[in-house]
Amino acid sequence: MRKKILSILLIISITIIVAIVVINLNNAKKNNGDEGENRVNIVASFYPTYILTLNIADGIPGINISNLTDYSSGCLHDYQITTDDMKTLSKADILVINGGGMENFIEDAINSYPDLIIVDASHGIEFIKDENHSHNHGHSHNEDAEEDHEAHSGENQEKHSDENHKHNEANQEDYIYKNSHIWLNPLLYIRQIENVRDSLIEFIEKMGIYNDDELNYIIATMKNNASTYIDKVIRLDEELTSLMESNIDKLYGEEKEEVVIFHDAFLYLAERMGLEVAYTVEMDTDTYLSAGEIAEIIDIIDEHDIKYLFTELQYSDSIAKRIEEETGARVYIIDSAVTGDGTKDSYLTSMYHNIDVLKDALQ
Ligand SMILES: [Zn+2]
Question: Considering the entire predicted model, what is its pTM?
């Protein structure tokens, strides 16, 4: 009897020991796997660059993609870097930025990481410069120096250097406002995809951590992913073209329609559509418009017989609603694709929604 009990105890003990060993082995494997697997750490600055990078590099073994800012952060004009962001940057090999001053908040921070590779998605793209940028309501909305962009374009191919941050000391007066919301024009967005694809391939090659077979696989996959994504954006752009074609009179006729926009992100979509923007109200989360300013906007709307006010999903539309009440214009809400559910088709979903809004407005 005692023998029986002993042997049962022995079996139980052996089972427990085996189980512990197996669990430990599995955990060890998992940990090693994770560390070994993430050989390239790509961080995107905000939602649009994150979605773009996902479409190029997601699902490639060993490449980890994360978003520096939260999905709901929106545009980064007033963004303040956090200690968590600094932690994320310290682990990053590559940082994908939109450029054009969108990531001004990060300039000082990246000086602390001299090995961090910067991929500028706006390389070679010309920004809309706003001559009427007098309605800057006290916030530092996307101010950027001319020489800053030149510096960034050049550094697209190399690691950044301290040289590029000299403008921080430059006279604020020299800053020319640059509209950095280029992704809202699908044709410019395609160039951003190409930029990121080419730079990622170049830098991953330079890192020298992959053998030829691995590298060939990564390059082929990225090229293939980018071309699949570009095809989708081309189809989206064709929708815009057909919308324009069925509204030639309203867009290009003698009595062509003008619009008022809130937050200048829409300017790129308007430009692609051929929509004339009569006035841009600089909106931000902290924007306060005085009664005088609202009266001025109402005057412009009456004077130009404006029927459309385009505001954005990410911003409060209460001022637009007030103006709507006092004029004959109607408010339409555009999605500037700076927030979303984090899925790869997020940009396309936002843009198709915008096409529906535009269809509704123009009909
Ligand atoms: Zn913005």
Answer: 0.79
